[in-house]
Amino acid sequence: MDSQLGLIEQSFNNRYTLWVHEALDELPDSFTITDPSISGHPIVFASRGFLKMSGFSRAEIIGRNGRMFQGPRTNRRTIMEIREAIREERPIEVNLLNYKKDGTPFWMLFKMSLVFGKEDGRATHFVAVQVPIVSRKHMRNSGMSYSEDGGGSRLREIVFGSCRREVCSDSLLDLDRVLALDSDDTGLEIEDSCEASDLEKRKAATAIDNILSVLTHYSQLTGRLVCGKRCSLPGMGFISSSLYISLGRIKQSFVLIDPHLPDMPMVYASDAFLKLTGYDRNEVVGQNCRFLNGVDTDTTVLYQVSIAISPYPKKKSIYMEYVRV
């Protein structure tokens, strides 16, 4: 766990200045930031707004995967939609039922966007904004109208369209009984509408813009610029975030090397490898393995490795140079 916490700290420190945490904490929005390059795709930052909304402390969240907020009523199809968006590295906006620390379920608008490295086009982080959806009951008590046509058709949309079956208090209720319950404040309360309003959608979009603006600014100060859209097409050696997540499940120490790139650089290093060698990921990726050699490295073994890598005589001069180092 200590090694993962070290990687989480590097996740921000290698890309942004130390003041980025303070700047993000000044934002009023509820959001989390995750790093797909770390095993388990953990949360590496949680805003004060999110901590207040969820009831968790920062120490309870950092290093954990976002699935910790799911519960028995969380819609699995929606979760699969989010996972597919992560795999395809694209933004997504869905209505999601999650759970607070005390077990209370609540509806929220979940809007996810990506942060890309400007130099290589790689997805470095995922930003997820969570905007609580104001319930229909709250709107009614506030004197606001929740029905555009005066009742039944809107509720039909809520029960059978917007809301998922698993968040209704009794999915076997027929529509007439549901309508009766809704008109009786003393009856069994059903789950309110899970459709986010236009105002809530605009709030989520504004939050994403503000977060990306902070990250972009503090990446400029380190020279490792990020942007909200893929600024350059990924070249050879590019590893998608979905592959990063899959590789992160492997606990052994290993690296991946791309033989099609000049000098055969490492394009991935596992968490166990970083712990074993003491290097940061940004110090390893892009380097040839020879930089790990030293005065006591057995050149006979290096020669055997070079022969195993290259079955073609025309490439041996490259590997012989590798051996000599």
TrEMBL record:
Which keywords accompany this UniProt record? Chromophore, Flavoprotein, FMN, Photoreceptor protein, Receptor, Sensory transduction
Q: Which residues form the PAS domain?
A: 22-89, 266-288
SMART domains per the UniProt record, alphabetical: PAC (SM00086)
> CDD domains from the xrefs?
PAS
Q: PANTHER family from the xrefs?
A: PROTEIN TWIN LOV 1 (PTHR47429)
Q: Does the record's keyword annotation contain tRNA-binding?
A: no
> GO biological process: any one?
response to blue light
Pfam families per UniProt:
PAS_9
SUPFAM superfamilies named in the record: PYP-like sensor domain (PAS domain)
Species whose genome carries this gene: Citrus sinensis
What is this protein called in UniProt?
LOV domain-containing protein
InterPro entries membership: PAC, PAS, PAS-assoc_C, PAS-like_dom_sf
Q: Name one GO molecular function term.
A: photoreceptor activity
- PAC domain: residues covered: 90-145
